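2024-03-11 09:14:02 DEBUG pipeline.ingest accepted 1 chain
2024-03-11 09:14:02 DEBUG pipeline.ingest length=170
2024-03-11 09:14:03 DEBUG pipeline.predict start
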Amino acid sequence: MQALQILLLMIFPALAIVGALKDLTSYTIPNWVSLALIGAFPVAALAVGAPLAQVGLCLAVGLMGLVMGMGMFAAGWIGGGDGKLFAACALWVGWPAALPFMLYTGLAGGALTFAILALRSGYLAPAVAGAPAWLRKLGTTGGDLPYGVAIAVGALAAFPESPLARGILG
């Protein structure tokens, strides 16, 4: 039974990584990634035997994540796919891991920003001249940031503290 529980919990990091890679390579996060995360959550919660109160807290954290994601999107800080991924990841990390999730996401976002600024500075242009198209696009001045990468890093870093992971890992 524990193997099935672990397998179901692995859906979260797998889909978070898929969302990050899609954002990194195409500046889009498909809706199916966030919808799959939302759809898989109750199955995983049921499989690990999460108490109803804890599931309710996770739902509340996910709703707060959606409100925050919508606010960040409205402010022009992130894209719509980023906001949806943020909310879906918040659902999975739940409480009390929501605070580390936001902290890790912010730190990863800062590191991502510095890396992209370095790439766009021109000093690295010769190094990426023969790189894949998606990497050259990242180096384009004035382009967007694939913030889904930071969201996924923050979510993966906080996930071990989530109620679902704690239910299995102890």
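2024-03-11 09:14:41 DEBUG pipeline.report Residues 80-120 form the longest helix (41 residues).
2024-03-11 09:14:41 DEBUG pipeline.predict end
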